[in-house]
Design a protein that fits this description.
Oligomer: single chain
InterPro entries: DUF5787
Structural class: alpha+beta
Radius of gyration: 23 Å
Pfam families: DUF5787
Shape: globular
Amino acid sequence: MDADSEFVFELQVCQWAERDWPPERARPILIARQLGTKRRRWDTIVVECDPDALETRARFGRERLDSDLLDVLRHAPEEWAWYRDALPDPGYPWRYVRESIHRADDREILETRTRGNRLQIRRRWAYPDWVERIVAIENKPDFDASAARALTDQLQRDVAVGLADEVWVATAGGREQFERALLEDVPVEVGILLVEGRDAEAIWQPRSLSPEQPGTRIEQRPDGGERDASAARFSYVDPDWKREKRLAIAERAYERGFRSYVGTMRPDCRHFELDDVPAGFLPHCDAKSCHQTASECRGGCPEYEPEPPTWRTGGWPIDGGPGAGVRRLLERQRLRTRPGLEE
């Protein structure tokens, strides 16, 4: 395996997915990492999109639309109307709705005016139905039998809730490792990917889940001990809740992508570079001679050395210095998958 850490393996999976996903379908996609809900965060998210609707989404800007903004924009009328007549009852004080309306107006994605002391709204554009499918991938580079057993409970919960359309596990282990995992522990609904460098092979195809149907949240289950006579506890997951969460995840994926890791690392360090390997660009630390993790590449690193001021002010070797050049390169790559956004 090329990866020096699970973080680097995660970047390899993301870059493979952006390049080659999906194997049997042709539609634009967005790739993001470390997204999900309060209860569950997935390593990699693949959002399959409607081509025309994805381009229309760009009208609303690069930043994500949170749930409050979405409640306003999806119900904003074509013609001027008092906001309380145009929008459904939010179930919380209207003053928060007014705050969302003003935020949308500040971002120039909603029109507002005051008539007779009443705040009126009118949409600029209809919010598009741009999300078609969401695929969740759990990354386990060393996927042996013990790792499969440790992950089984969470995978079963993912399948039961049915928030994603598909659930996968990506691994860099050999065939013998995940063959044991398939036979022993991994739910049959979960697909398995073998990732090697820039290529990946689907070893086990997943079953499609049903996000539009009610789901089941496993709240608590017996630990299996001899004296454990407790019953498992479950709760109902409403399809409307799933619909809202899926859109919120997709909006965050649109804003962040998977290259946002550079925002928490230190590309302004003179030792930071992007290593062009077969899998794609990976962060590399010249001082440590390794692909560093996001947690260790920080200002507190003992090897951290800021770029000399002459690099940034003199434009060597590119305007703004190498760190700024790294950010621009990753931003250009991110924008390629978001048609309609100007660089």
